[in-house]
Design a protein that fits this description.
- The protein is an alpha+beta fold.
- The protein has 2 domains: 80 residues, no CATH class; 40 residues, no CATH class.
- 35% of the residues lie in helices and 9% in strands.
- It has a two-stranded antiparallel sheet with strand order 1-2.
- Helix 1 packs antiparallel against helix 2.
- The longest helix has 28 residues.
């Protein structure tokens, strides 16, 4: 197993470092890179950040004391509020905590880590640009 990219006590700094390390590897400004070079850099950053986000999700998830109960949502009724009927395995480790919580307020967390790994908003390479004209030379 490889060394983690991010750590609990330095999470934000580690994410910033991943980005800055990628910038440091560039030998020229972004606008001077070919489309192929830009795509390579975007690919490397995407790969590294995907792993960092996975690790960050685990760190965040592990940092809160909670009882996890996996349940099937049998039905939802929306009227004056939302009433959810959940089906939980009778042998679930959290069954007692759940039954003790009747009438209490609890947090319901719907965790879809895969939704966090979409690349929407990620940068794309600039199309190949023609040479820049300097001092009237072509």
């Amino acid at each position: 197993m490889s060394e983690p990219i991010v750590h609990e006590l330095t999470l934000l700094g580690d994410l910033i470092k991943v980005t800055v390390d990628s910038l440091k590897q560039m030998d020229r400004p972004w606008v001077n890179l070919s489309e192929e070079e830009q795509n390579r850099i975007i690919g490397n950053v995407t790969h590294t950040m995907r792993q960092a986000v996975r690790e960050a999700c685990v760190i965040i998830d592990d940092s809160v004391d909670k009882i996890r109960i996996r349940a099937q949502v049998d039905s939802i009724t929306i009227k004056d509020g939302i009433k959810a009927v959940l089906k939980v395995d009778a042998n679930n480790d959290g069954r007692h905590a759940l039954s003790d919580s009747s009438g209490e307020y609890v947090d319901i967390i719907i965790c879809r880590i895969g939704d966090l790994l979409h690349e929407g908003g990620a940068p794309t390479a600039d199309p190949q640009q023609s040479a820049m004209e300097l001092n009237g030379d072509e």
